[in-house]
Amino acid sequence: MILGRMRGAGIARAVMQGPRPVVLSGPSGAGKSTLLKKLLKDYENIFGFSVSHTTRQPRPGEVNGKDYHFVTREEMQKEIDAGEFIEHAEFSGNMYGTSKGAVQAVQAQNQICVLDIDIQGVKNIKKTELNPIYISVQPPSIEILEKRLRDRKTETEESLQKRLTAARVDLELSKEPGLFDLVIINDDLEKAYSELKEVLLEEIKKTEESRKS
Ligand code: ADP
Ligand code: 5GP
């Protein structure tokens, strides 16, 4: 376990030499992927997505290796046991995790690494030396979250209920002072996106400058 953590810290140290990573967290359905896709499209060369592993089934349109590495529980456990993950967690009946390779792939491009992880992931990343900017994206209310999740049409009734339960826990735990550098309430998408860009402006500028030199 200690070895695992040291390995995690090793990669984190390596990442610190590049631009500061960004963690986007918050309840499922809050709008993380929507905001991230906009950011990655507008700043194609500046940000790079840390492609997580998951044991959940792909949704229509999701691409293996781009949205996630879709794997079996056995495959993922084997890689975790081999010390290949920085963090991993069980969420809504499936395993999710960030491999060292996922962060290294972004780092190799000298891009700002963006991680989309749940609150357990946030707590585990805090134990490493990754030193990212922590942002929580939250819905205006649980009712609106439920409507967005239903309208997204990606969940069964069972997984929707699990996600809503996890969302309530997430919103409670997110109140911990200092856990996040910024909480964005995603009511109006454009407003939420502006707030996200504003907090990242300094890192964006630094990365753009480093490209010029
Ligand atoms: P997450 O990645 O956090 O699970 P998504 O980005 O998939 O959430 O967003 C959940 C759903 O809500 C999607 O169908 C998305 O189009 C929609 N959505 C996101 N932001 C807003 C917003 N500000 N207003 C209305 N709908 C939104
Ligand atoms: P989804 O199934 O909707 O893509 O993701 C469900 C939840 O898993 C989201 O809260 C998302 O942030 C989280 N998640 C995705 N990848 C990872 C990961 O690598 N680690 C952790 N801890 N959570 C993740």
TrEMBL record:
Domain of life: Eukaryota
Cross-referenced Pfam families: Guanylate_kin
PANTHER family: GUANYLATE KINASE, GUANYLATE KINASE-RELATED
Gene Ontology CC annotations of this record: cytosol; photoreceptor inner segment
Subcellular location: Cytoplasm, Cytosol; Photoreceptor inner segment
EC class: transferase
Key words, A-Z: ATP-binding, Cytoplasm, Kinase, Nucleotide-binding, Transferase
Location of the Guanylate kinase-like domain: 19-201
Protein name (database record): Guanylate kinase
The enzyme's E.C. designation: 2.7.4.8
PROSITE patterns documented for this protein: GUANYLATE_KINASE_1, GUANYLATE_KINASE_2
Predominant cellular place of this UniProt entry's protein: cytoplasm
Organism: Cyanistes caeruleus
InterPro entries: GK/Ca_channel_bsu, Guanylate_kin-like_dom, Guanylate_kinase, Guanylate_kinase_CS, P-loop_NTPase
Keyword Transferase: yes
Reactions this protein catalyses: GMP + ATP = GDP + ADP
Quaternary structure annotation from Swiss-Prot or TrEMBL: Monomer. Interacts with RD3.
UniProt GO molecular function: ATP binding; GMP kinase activity
Lineage, highest ranks first: Eukaryota, Metazoa, Chordata, Craniata, Vertebrata
Keyword ATP-binding: yes
Family: Belongs to the guanylate kinase family.
